[in-house]
Amino acid sequence: MTTTASDASPKGLGNGPEGPRDRARKASRRLSWATAGRTTAWTLAVVLPLAFLGVFFAYPVATLVARGFVTDGVLDLGGFAEVLGSARTWRVVGHTLGQASLGTVIAVLLGVPGAYVLYRRTFPGRRVVRALVAVPFVLPSVVVGVAFRALLAPAGPLGFLGWDRTFPAIIAALVFFNYGLVVRMVGTVWERLDPRTEQAARALGASPLRALLTVTLPALAPAIASAASLVFLFCATAFAVVLVLGGSRYATVEVEIWLQTTQFLDLRAASVLSVVQLVVVALALTVSGRARRSRERALALVETSRATAPLRLALGRGRGGSGLDVAAAALTAVVVGLIALPLLTMLVRSFRHDGAWTLRHYANLATTGDRALSVSVWQATENSLRIAVDATIIAVVVGVVLALVLSRRPRSRLGRRGIGALDAAVMLPLGVSAVTVGFGFLIALDRPPLDLRSSLLLIPIAQAMVAIPLVVRAVLPVLRAIDPRLRQAAATLGAGPGRVLLTVDGPLVLRSLGLAVGFAFAVSLGEFGATSFLARPDRPTLPVVIFRLLGRPGDGNYGMALAASVILAVVVGLVMTTAERLRPAHAGEV
């Protein structure tokens, strides 16, 4: 038998099957496959969510915008001249900017003292009050409109003001809706501020008010600016609140788009107005993004400083800072009382009929009302829950994948810029009107292969578009808080990319997933803007049914709207309470 050189080589020393060169080649091959697999996985993690957003957000919005520029395939800017030359258009734009500006100013002026009391001071029941002021922000906008109608109606507790269906009613509802947002965004920064700077100013002779104005408020400026820009955005794109409380008389751009589409059938004018709204939203998002980046930098500084416990609220005479405490506490108590009043009024009136206590309105939820509905309220509730579950699943899957991508820290400048651009793109659905999205779905997804007008997934997808940014904001801060060295250590110990993702990122994602699911479900359940365009008469959602009941005359229909609003508010409140209990400490703010 002939012996070859390779056969004669000692095992493990020569070029045989188990030799060092073969092992090196195998290791190199495995490394190449691992690298290729990791690259493919992250590429898919970026491409698939972006493709989803491109098809179901960018394409419908772009198609809608194109309607304002193109007529019969030819560029035509005549629609802009016609719409922008109308006095009605500028009156609508004026209402939009006026209500957004006034609502923002009042919400910030009231919210900053509230942040001081609820985050820098401690008192019995503080946690309950915090929860109460957070409730309006997660309530469906239709419910807020119904609550204020009940409060300001001639027979309501504040009917003597004569504000029913007036501009002040809209402003009051917008402040009610956004007060908790200001308190939370400013308060979470305020409670982490290092108090030693303010204490130094006081030691040098500054009064409590002067120390507040010259030291504390400048430090809070990024948080206040970030909160104000978001409140302006939400006020400018308010739809159901304005529609329920003001109607066409105080129409904003968003309401006008809905009116031009559903009542006047003027798609061209609606498209031009959508472009106008996109410009306003883009400016608000730019300011919000810059303020948020400043806020994140400020948080990075204060979180490394010495943690301090909040001081007890000083209301007695002769105690340091008691003047500010008394003023802030009194203002906050008044605002909290006014926040509770619309909700309590709506609850009480849902049990009243002809001056007597009754469960009649709740019993009527099993009917279609006085010929106002095609299905019962309970059927609409079932539709809403089913759609919200589907929308939540879509939003959580897409949002978590995007949060994982955005949590990476690329070393190259190009990579960091790419992550920043992706972050901005993900936030666009939060700023673009839901009415614009729903309208875009109608005119864009109407032909193969994207003819989804008869698909049951159309509404869940539209609602998921609104919820995805909130899921990202709930999960992303937790992932960004992970020390990169943990991932590096796991990889050094032999864990593959998938194992690192499951063992390092996975547990923290699960911690924040409860809040993400809660936000997505609550937003989907109460969404009205896009759903009002897309819901079929035989499959309405609960917010659509409430609006239809409000639009029909009769005490029976109005009482049913009150009862249905209470049901919707209770469900959303239970969902958010459960989600808040699952929220990890310092998970970040949405």
TrEMBL record:
Protein's membrane topology: Multi-pass membrane protein
Transmembrane segments: 39-59, 100-119, 131-152, 167-190, 211-244, 264-287, 326-348, 387-407, 419-445, 457-479, 513-536, 556-576
PROSITE patterns: ABC_TM1 (PS50928)
InterPro entries documented for this protein: MetI-like (IPR000515), MetI-like_sf (IPR035906)
Keywords assigned by UniProt, alphabetized: Cell inner membrane, Cell membrane, Membrane, Transmembrane, Transmembrane helix, Transport
Family recorded in the similarity comment: Belongs to the binding-protein-dependent transport system permease family.
Name of the featured protein: Iron ABC transporter permease
